[in-house]
Design goal:
Organism: Equus przewalskii (Przewalski's horse)
Structural class: alpha+beta
Protein name: Interleukin-17 receptor C isoform X16
Membrane topology: Single-pass membrane protein; Single-pass type I membrane protein
Helix content: 25-40%
Largest sheet: 5 strands, mixed
Main location: membrane
Number of strands: 33
Strand content: 25-35%
Distance between the termini: 78 Å
Shape: elongated
Oligomer: single chain
Radius of gyration: 43 Å
Keywords: Cell membrane, Glycoprotein, Inflammatory response, Membrane, Receptor, Signal, Transmembrane, Transmembrane helix
């Protein structure tokens, strides 16, 4: 029956080795010993009770290792069962104890050497056997003559015939003594099925199943069943997956229903087939797990090793970083960590098949999407020896070239410059441990060195044209590209509102695109303060602008109220108070570290002490106005702002516009005192 090749090539595995088994006659269990030992098998099974470990009073016999052998227990010529023979190897454990009077008197009184105590040793050895659905325990008595008793020496073995078990099952065997002087020995074995034995005709259960052969023809697989008329059986195809959960959708019953506890056998014929391995590798995928993790996703286990490699742009194959980084065995569908300090687009993961019959490889440069295309960087390998001796080589297609060598490679010619770049901090450290480190050094400035003069002339010409364009279009461009600024403040009183309005009007002349609730009262009434602030904040952030928090005594009190550090500020909430409404969104940005780059703070000289600003908001720049107006305007306008001289002129213009309104606030009774009252002790509470 033809089946898809890929399904069966992943579902079936290795066939066992064919075994020829010794034949035992009769139903009775038996025991025999090595020459010199005597042993006796107790009649019937015993109860398995290992008990606790006790101290040995002197030399005792203990089991040291277990060995198993498969045999046939036959009742008639063609009626046999599989049976497990167990051999227990014994040794003498412990020493004779000295009497107390001998320890006190010492050996001076008796200069003649004392003969070892002549006594034989006897032990009760328990064998416990489990193989579903069978569980047995037998007891063997073993006696060792005095001549063989040497502490620490092996004395021989005792062999038990035998434990019956079903074909293809897993058996577990334990051995210990009564009383128990050490941890019990244990052994687990997987028994073969009918195909692994040369006794199919003598074991009745092997005749219950048809013989199955599998052949492959291109992309099709043929299953051939040799079925006799009296056989009734079930046939299933299944996915033999070692790691991860079972995948039931690969299981198909192709014949009659299975009966409970029926005789079963399995065959996995494609474990050694190269085509199956190629199919499996095609289905495998490498996946990056931020920040420095990765995982190999595959439908079933792979025999593979992984290492990091360095992929130079356009320069041949990826070069494995072994050494200094070791190869590691891969466990599929399990997250693994890179031993790295930083990521780099040229660092790739290379999976190499460890199956000796075929060399397969899978490679992914996992940082290509997040860090951009491959860079023309030079990878330096640092080796550290004793007494802080360090040496450097550069990874090139021909190998790792020592720096400062006389080789005719690019790394050798630029060896001194690369070392200077490394010591001056221009190289990125990718990995570090006690034996060495990896550094990625930019090569851009060396690649185009011969074209420096040409590029410089072109850049100067372009700069001249650009400067001429700026001189003509400066005013129009500044007006068209003014940065957005959203002012948030607490309406402490009418004088403070006039001061904020003067600041907003002056910033519009910088030029900046200013949004403030003073100019949007109709929208505030229609939308509400919270909805208005949400819309303005989203627009400001999307356009690359800044939100300006203007601190005043009322604003500080509202912040403490939201931070549950002070009681509610009387009179702080008004129908158009956008500052109070905005704190529900502003505070999470600061608490979660999203504020830098989006917010700045400001307060007015004489109205508020610098330390009164809550500590949480000092995560962003906070400016005093008008004394720090140049820095404040530079922060608002960003990197595209005017030159320093022009910025100073604009700061003077804003200061002149602010001063009358600020003087009016300072002359208002109680205002200056309110600012002085919000001193360091008020700000330090947050």
């Amino acid at each position: 029956m033809p089946m898809p090749w890929f399904l069966l090539s992943l579902a079936l595995g290795r066939s066992p080795v064919v075994l020829s088994l010794e034949r035992l006659e009769g139903l009775q269990d038996a025991a025999r010993c090595s020459p010199g030992l005597s042993c006796h098998l107790w009649d019937g099974d015993v109860v398995c009770l290992p008990g606790s470990i006790v101290s040995a009073p002197g030399p005792v016999l203990v089991p040291t290792s277990l060995q198993t052998e498969l045999v046939r227990r036959c009742y008639q010529e063609t009626d046999c069962d599989l049976c497990v023979r167990v051999a227990v190897h014994l040794a003498v454990h412990g020493h004779w104890e000295k009497p107390e009077d001998e320890e006190k008197l010492g050996r001076a009184a008796d200069p003649e050497p004392e003969e070892p105590r002549n006594a034989s040793l006897q032990a009760q050895v328990v064998l416990s056997f489990q193989a579903y659905p069978t569980a047995r325990c037998v007891l063997l008595e073993v006696q060792v003559p005095a001549a063989l008793v040497q502490p620490g020496q092996s004395v021989g073995s005792v062999v038990f015939d035998c434990f019956e078990a079903a074909l293809g099952t897993e058996v577990q065997i334990w051995s210990y003594t009564q009383p128990r002087y050490q941890k019990e020995l244990n052994l687990t074995r997987q028994l073969p099925d009918c195909r692994g034995l040369e006794v199919q005709d003598s074991i009745q259960s092997c005749r219950a199943l048809p013989w199955l052969s599998v052949t492959a023809d291109g992309d099709n697989v043929h299953l051939v069943l040799d079925v006799s008329e009296e056989q009734s059986f079930g046939l299933s195809l299944y996915w033999n997956q070692v790691q991860g959960p079972v995948k039931p959708w690969w299981h198909r019953n192709l014949a009659w229903p299975l009966e409970p506890d029926s005789v079963r056998t399995s065959i996995c014929p494609f474990t050694e087939d190269p085509r199956a391995h190629r199919n499996l590798w095609r289905a495998a995928r490498l996946q990056l797990l931020p920040p420095r993790g990765w995982r190999l996703d595959a439908p079933c286990s792979l025999h593979a090793q992984a290492t990091l490699c360095w992929q130079a742009p356009g320069r041949g194959p990826c070069q494995p970083l072994v050494p200094p980084l070791p190869r590691e065995n891969v466990t599929v569908n399990m997250a693994l960590e890179f031993p790295l300090l930083k990521g780099h687009p040229n660092l790739c993961v290379q999976q190499v098949s460890s199956w000796e019959k075929m060399q397969l490889q899978l490679q992914e440069c996992l940082w290509a999407d997040s860090l951009g295309p491959l860079k023309d960087d030079m990878l330096l390998v640092e080796a550290r020896g004793p007494q802080d001796n360090r040496s450097f080589c550069a990874l090139e297609p021909s190998g790792c070239t020592p720096l400062l060598s006389r080789a005719s490679t690019r790394a050798a010619r630029l060896g001194e410059q690369l070392l200077q770049d490394l010591h001056s901090g221009q190289c990125l450290q990718l990995w570090d441990d006690d034996l060495g480190a990896l550094w990625a050094c930019p090569m851009d400035k060396y690649i185009h060195q011969r074209w420096v003069l040409v590029w410089l002339a072109c850049l100067l010409f372009a700069a001249a044209l650009f400067l001429l364009f700026l001189l003509k279009k400066d005013h129009v461009k500044a007006a068209a590209t003014g940065r957005a600024a959203l002012l948030l403040y607490s309406a402490d009183d009418a004088g403070f509102e006039r001061l904020v309005g003067a600041l907003a009007s002056a910033l519009c002349q910088v030029p900046l695109r200013v949004a403030v609730d003073l100019w949007s009262r109709r929208e505030l009434s229609a939308q509400g303060p919270l909805a208005w602030f949400h819309a303005q904040r989203r627009r400001t952030v999307q356009e690359g602008g800044l939100v300006v928090l203007i601190f005043s005594p009322g604003a500080v009190a509202l912040c403490h109220e939201w931070l549950q550090d002070a009681g509610p500020a009387p009179g702080a909430h008004g129908p158009h108070d956008a500052f109070a409404a905005s704190l529900s969104c502003v505070l999470p940005d600061f608490l979660q570290g999203r504020a830098p780059g989006r917010y700045v703070g400001a307060y007015f000289d004489g109205l508020l002490h610098a330390d009164a600003v809550p500590a949480l908001f000092r995560a962003v720049p906070v400016f005093s106005l008008p004394s720090q107006l140049p820095a404040f305007l530079g922060s608002l306008q960003g990197p595209r702002g005017p030159r320093p001289g022009r910025l100073g002129e604009r700061a003077e213009q804003v200061a002149r516009a602010l001063q009358p309104a600020l003087d009016s606030c300072l002359r208002t009774p109680g205002t200056a005192g309110m600012g002085r009252g919000m001193g360091p002790e008020a700000g330090d509470r947050t």
